[in-house]
Amino acid sequence: MKYLKYLGFGLSFLAMASCTPMSDCKNCEAVTYDVNTGDEISRESAIEYCGTSLSEKENAEPIIVGDERIEWECK
21-51 pLDDT, tens per residue? Predict the structure, then answer.
């Protein structure tokens, strides 16, 4: 019986430890710049990202299409 109690406690602890706190969130915008001048062309509406999704946006490489560079800016 003690085995089941410890197993339940261990599984509960692992489930809580694997969760990302929601305070680790930022609002990110896709911003398009002119490659030649560096001027901002457009800015998309901000979307909130948290945890792994936020890390992906913050570490994403800029995308260059023709004379435009698109990158994520998170605040």
Answer: 556 999 999 999 999 999 999 999 999 999 9
- Written as six digits, the tokens of 71 are 């990158």
- Quote the tokens at residue 64: 């260059």
Is 62 within a domain?
yes
**H helix or E strand, kind and range, residue 41:** strand 40-43
Q: Residue 30: which residues within 8 A CB-CB, separation 6 or more? A: 43, 44, 70, 71, 72
32 is a domain residue? yes
Helix count and strand count (H, E) for the chain: 2, 5
